[in-house]
Specification:
The complex is a heterodimer of chains A (155) and B (212).
Chain A lengths: L1 H17 L2 E3 L5 E9 L7 E10 L5 E7 L3 E12 L2 E7 L2 E3 L4 E4 L4 E8 L8 E8 L4 E9 L11
Parallel strand pairs in A: 2-11
Antiparallel strand pairs in A: 1-2, 2-3, 3-8, 3-9, 4-7, 4-10, 5-6, 5-9, 10-11
Chain B lengths: L1 H9 L1 H31 E6 L5 E4 L4 E3 L7 E7 L6 H19 L5 E7 L7 H11 L4 E4 L2 H8 L6 E3 L9 E3 L3 E4 L5 E5 L5 H17 L1
Parallel strand pairs in B: 4-5, 5-6
Antiparallel strand pairs in B: 1-10, 2-3, 2-6, 4-9, 7-8, 9-10
The chains are: A mainly beta (155), B alpha+beta (212).
């Protein structure tokens, strides 16, 4: 009996470890591997990254992202123009039918503004994505301390 | 079959010579593509001297031309209310610091982050911010005029974008600059930055500098 319980627990643990994809049951839109780059304790903004997969034959539009742990969340893209790097704010994220939308360092990211408390490696941050059709998806982004290179891969 | 074996036997020296020549040629090409060409793109010839500038680091310490002397300096401009590019670059610089610690003499290299957003980034805020990436990193800033005295000499552009409230963005050049121990601008590494690539190039720069 004990053996069976242990096995079940191990299986549940394994499932929890492997499955970091978040979805709403009725929507074929999945938030895959959301993570936040751990920042200095006095940082006022953090960056969040993920892959959003659309498994349906119609496009989805994310219009708002909120979290109880941040005052505000904006959609940004890092761009370089005339030798200067800046961020451009986007009002929404469009995920076309059967396509993925990638948020990654040096590119699209969520700018998480004013954390309500310092966040450390391993913390889980709930993010609520509101779609244009009013539906919501809740994902939990893991805070990760990044060591080594995190620049976008060379083409 | 026997003909081939006999050919190899009789021409060992020739085959060895061809093999060495081919390997030599490809090594030279690889060196050129991976080291020489990238060096040509990043080095300033000749290195550029600077006129004095005056900035402030944490604990009210001065950060001036004097602080660039005696060490190689990797310098990056940005601001702390920047969630993506600036922390990414500082992470790369922290990795460079680790990689280069293995192959260089201690205390011969320093890493500096200069904020072009003095309104929000005080020197002490910067000090704590950069310490997260590496305790030896320096953070500095100054008034916009003081910053411009330095940035105009080294082709670093920065501009505050108009937005309401305290939530504005700052545009800035994202090159990592390298100064030699004579405080001359020696090289500029454009973004995106790869710590391993920059460390390898810097190691070559040190070698070339020793030879001359």
């Amino acid at each position: 009996m004990k053996y069976i319980i242990n096995c079940s627990l191990a299986m549940i643990a394994a499932l929890l470890l492997v499955n970091t994809t978040y979805a709403s049951e009725k929507i074929g839109l999945h938030i895959h591997d959301p993570w936040i780059k751990e920042a200095p304790p006095n940082a006022t903004v953090l960056g969040a990254y993920m892959t959003i997969e659309n498994h349906e034959n119609k496009k989805f539009i994310i219009t708002q992202i909120t979290s109880p742990l941040f005052k505000k969340i904006e959609i940004h893209k890092s761009v370089t123009k005339d030798g200067m790097t800046t961020m451009e704010q986007r009002k929404r994220i469009v995920i076309h039918a059967n396509k993925s939308f990638i948020l990654q360092p040096g590119d699209y990211h969520l700018m998480l503004i004013k954390p309500t408390k310092p966040l450390k490696h391993g913390d889980l941050v709930p993010l609520t994505f509101t779609l244009e059709n009013g539906k919501t998806i809740i994902a939990k982004a893991k805070v990760k301390k990044v060591l080594g290179s995190m620049s976008p891969k060379k083409e | 079959m026997t003909v081939n074996a006999a050919f190899v036997k009789n021409n060992r020296a020739l085959i060895a010579f061809i093999l060495i020549a081919v390997i030599g040629f490809f090594s030279w090409r690889v060196y050129h593509v991976q080291i020489q060409d990238p060096l040509d793109r990043i080095l300033l010839d000749p290195p550029r001297s600077l006129t004095p500038f005056s900035l402030v680091a944490g604990d009210n310490n001065p950060f001036t031309l004097e602080q660039l002397k005696g060490k190689w300096t990797f310098l990056f401009f940005g601001y702390t209310s920047c969630p993506d590019v600036c922390p990414t670059t500082l992470t790369e610089m922290a990795t460079m610091s680790k990689l280069l610690a293995k192959s260089t003499e201690p205390n011969t290299i320093q890493f500096v982050f200069i904020s072009v957003d003095p309104e929000r980034d005080t020197p002490d805020h910067l000090k704590n911010f950069v310490a997260y990436f590496n305790k030896t990193f320096t953070g500095a800033t100054g008034t916009i005029d003081q910053l411009n005295t330095l940035t105009r000499q080294i082709d670093i552009k920065h501009r505050r974008l108009k937005e309401q409230g305290n939530n504005y963005l700052v545009e800035h050049s994202a090159d990592i600059l390298l100064f030699n121990p004579q405080a001359k601008l020696f090289a500029r590494f454009p973004a995106p930055h790869y710590s391993e690539e920059i460390s390898a190039l810097f190691t070559e720069i040190l070698k070339l500098n020793k030879d001359t």
